[in-house]
Structure formats: structure tokens, C-alpha cells
Write a structure and sequence with these properties.
Elements (H helix, E strand, L loop, with lengths): L1 E2 L7 E2 H8 L3 H9 L8 E4 L7 E3 L1 H11 L8 H11 L4 H44 L5 H32 L4 H25 L2
Helix pairs in contact: 3-4, 6-7
Length: 201
């Protein structure tokens, strides 16, 4: 935009470059590519070589906000602009820093979640492999086997009186024979139970 009058508060392009701490080429590229709003830049005079003037504060804020905060090539430039902007509009930079910190935290939380998910999957795969190899038994299987074994022991012991009562009556007057009958009945059941126990080894 060309004008014959210098707007109040506007400064020469070279002065803006000095205040912002940036090279003339960097500023020129920002104007050419629209990073600095056209409303913040004017050529005072009608000639092609007439001096360029900048509304410095809005120009710096416009440029800063038009830069991609996530792009690594913009970080240095944004940092330089931020130092200048802090002098007159610290809230602009502060709010952006706060936003960036929140984004970093969210990214870290997401990466941590992925790490934990990956670790959990690896642990699950390891457990499944050990189960297949037979070196790891699930708690549920252990509890089920113990319950079944206990049930068989109970049934075996409770069946003894019914099986040997008649035999005991037949030899009731012979203590040795009664003792031997009871002993043999218990021993027989214990033998069966040892066979059951071997199944779970």
C-alpha cells in the first residue's frame, strides 16, 4: 500500500528490523509471503524506491501468530519475536507459551499411554507363551484343580465307613483284624489319591 503520509507510531522498516533483532531479508520474506499482515506495512511515497514503514507492534504480533508453532524451523524465529513482543504485549506470548506447554503435556501423556500399552502387550504375549510352554499355570486352573482334588479326597474318606462296616462287624471280636481292615481301607484310598495327585504335577 502506498501513502504520502507517515502514520503515527509507524517506523521505518530498518528500525523495525533493529527492534525485532531480525535481518532485512527475513523481514522482507515475511512481508512477501504474507506472514506480516498487509495492513501493518505501507510504502510512503509514490516511487518504487520510496521508504517502507511498519506498524511495529501489530506487525510483530501478526507475524508471530502466523508462524507454525509446531514446526521446528519456526522455533528460533518465534523465540526472537517473542522477546520483542514481551516488551509491549506479554500476554500474547504468555498465553501461547501456556498453550504450548499444554500441548507438550498432552503429547507426553499420549506417548506414555502408548508406552504402557506396548509394555502391557509384551507382558501379555510373554504370559501366553509361558502358558503354551507349560511353565506357567493360570490361577484359575490351580484353584479348579485344588477344588477337584479336595472333593475327591473328601469323597474317598467318607466312603470308607460304608465299605468296611460289614467287614468290621464280621470280625468285631478280633481287634487286630478290625485294625487291619481300617488300615487297609485308608491305605487303599491314599494310594488312589496319590495317583490323582500325580495328574496335577
Amino acid at each position: 500500500m502506498k501513502s504520502k503520509k507517515i502514520p503515527k507510531g509507524w517506523i521505518k522498516l530498518s528500525e523495525f528490523e533493529r527492534l525485532a533483532g531480525l535481518s532485512s531479508r527475513t523481514v522482507a520474506l515475511a512481508i512477501t509471503h504474507g506472514k506480516i499482515s498487509a495492513e501493518c506495512v505501507k510504502r510512503v511515497g509514490t516511487g518504487a524506491t520510496s521508504p517502507m514503514y511498519v506498524n511495529p507492534q501489530p506487525a510483530a504480533v501478526s507475524w508471530y501468530q502466523n508462524l507454525n508453532a509446531g514446526h521446528h524451523l519456526s522455533r528460533t524465529l518465534r523465540g526472537t519475536l517473542a522477546k520483542y513482543i514481551k516488551k509491549f504485549a506479554p500476554d500474547v506470548v504468555g498465553e501461547d507459551i501456556k498453550k504450548n506447554k499444554e500441548e507438550v503435556r498432552e503429547k507426553m501423556s499420549f506417548e506414555e499411554a502408548l508406552r504402557r500399552e506396548k509394555a502391557a502387550k509384551a507382558q501379555t504375549a510373554e504370559i501366553e507363551l509361558k502358558e503354551k510352554e507349560g511353565s506357567l499355570i493360570s490361577k484359575e486352573n490351580v484353584y479348579n484343580n485344588l477344588f477337584e482334588a479336595g472333593k475327591q479326597i473328601r469323597d474317598a474318606l467318607l466312603s470308607i465307613p460304608e465299605r468296611i462296616t460289614d467287614d468290621i462287624i464280621a470280625v468285631v471280636e478280633n481287634r487286630t483284624k478290625v485294625r487291619n481292615l481300617i488300615h487297609d481301607a485308608i491305605a487303599a484310598e491314599l494310594e488312589k489319591l496319590s495317583e490323582i495327585a500325580q495328574k496335577y504335577e
